[in-house]
């Protein structure tokens, strides 16, 4: 564009004279000077002050005109500056430039305050982004180089001083230290890590220097991916926001046409200026993005990353929520919950199982070995011909006896008769010479705070909570479903079946899928809203497949997402209701001569600030604790479609208690 060069030069000059490099603040100052000069002239009849103020008036008009022309030429649409330019021009022609200056000052001040609040909110969000753009100390050829994090390559050795942020994902190869992971997982206590332990970028090295070998490139690390995603999420526009932008365009052009119609009918430049000054397109334009930005920032503060505001908006209309089990409502760590002896003493059974399992390295084997040690089994038996049966069990020979350890299906396949035994969990059967001698019941470690989770989710407006697990043991699926009080449960679910389950329930309404972002990725992507838990473990996959990423491992964060989403929806509805009411009433009052341009501009300013403050209470919780808090509480009651996720409803949900010890 040939004229872009000239606009860039103008902007560069304006930035030079703008306080704090803020052109919006320059607009306010450029308007307040003629307000003072024209006001003193009106009070004391000093024409010299009028003429001293006129250059500033024209400069202010020029700044707004330049912003308007840029919007028209580069973006092919009009902006709120159109109204200010017209008001300042009309009042100047009408011989009342004081009114025009007051309008420019009030509206400019309102916009400055509004966007300052928004900017401060974004600065809090972008503090994480700035962390991602720092440097790392890399050891190359016995030299230490300080380079940008995005230039770190896989297998580079990174030096991390005590007290510094961990800049990359990797493995500790030298040193040990306590690591503060609260910014990533929400875990409040430091975690001690030594050689061989994994560290995640964005955490804090507290007690000792470390050398870390990067296991991925710097721009693929957790922190880099997260910061890029936050930047992208703030740029995303929802369908609602796009409709609001279109409405603003229609509103601006309609009001401009209406003001000229008033001028044509009445011949009054005064009425025309008042009509232009009172209409506030800013309330429309800011209604959605301010709420989205505030909610995204609030969730980020709680270690929850949302990909824009649209998935949060969709959470209000979710009918079915499908929960994965392993790694979502359980820790994905098996534990032995019960030993059932059948013709063999308990200690002998454990010794036999631990001796065989010690030859293998998988989670169930470790659980059995650790439990046996805790039960006093210290001496293992010699094992011969140990063989892993992938997905089925283990067979081995111990003391001239054939041992088979595995699931009920494994033993049944060998035509070994199984006794009828009741248990809750996953059964690991042990047979000696084709005769069952005992059962080791395994189950995933349950998080005590998950008890009654479905009731709390129901209180937030979700009609159905479903547990879907890949476990092939129905008893284990039922145990977990009963613990969280799910409406239904499905077991032996493949990733493909979970995807089919999402599509099945989408016929009845919107579906949210909650999983760990790994084998649940297809289902997360298919759902209306995909929520990945423990996203720091595989951030790339979690972000690609999900709309919302819970960085820690707490499924209770679902309640936070639901509560804030409902609150955000109510605030957006309030903002639009305010915009419609304010503009309709204000324009009617201006038409009938009940306002003047100065008062109209003041009301315009109040409207903009109200919308921003209303949205800001999503992030700044102190707003609702202030003296105006009851006003917002009353508004929430008026516009809420249904009373979901209200404190009294959540308090009525079953009390969270620890799972009883076994």
Automatic annotation (TrEMBL):
InterPro entries: ATPase_P-typ_cyto_dom_N, ATPase_P-typ_P_site, ATPase_P-typ_transduc_dom_A_sf, ATPase_P-type_domA, HAD-like_sf, HAD_sf, P-typ_ATPase_IB, P_typ_ATPase
Native organism taxonomy: Bacteria, Pseudomonadati, Pseudomonadota, Gammaproteobacteria, Methylococcales
Record's bilayer topology term: Multi-pass membrane protein
Main location: membrane
Subcellular location: Cell membrane
The keyword Lipoprotein appears for this protein: no
Protein's name according to its UniProt entry: P-type ATPase A domain-containing protein
Alphabetical list of NCBIfam families matching this protein: ATPase-IB2_Cd (TIGR01512), ATPase-IB_hvy (TIGR01525), ATPase_P-type (TIGR01494)
GO biological process, one term: copper ion homeostasis
Family: Belongs to the cation transport ATPase (P-type) (TC 3.A.3) family. Type IB subfamily.
Keywords for this protein: ATP-binding, Cell membrane, Ion transport, Magnesium, Membrane, Metal-binding, Nucleotide-binding, Phosphoprotein, Translocase, Transmembrane, Transmembrane helix, Transport
Residues that span the membrane, as ranges: 21-40, 46-65, 99-118, 250-269, 275-297, 576-595
P-type ATPase A domain mapped to chain residues: 133-231
GO terms of molecular function: ATP binding; ATP hydrolysis activity; copper ion binding; P-type divalent copper transporter activity
Gene Ontology annotations for the cellular component aspect, listed alphabetically: plasma membrane
Transport as UniProt keyword: yes
SUPFAM superfamilies: Calcium ATPase, transduction domain A, HAD-like
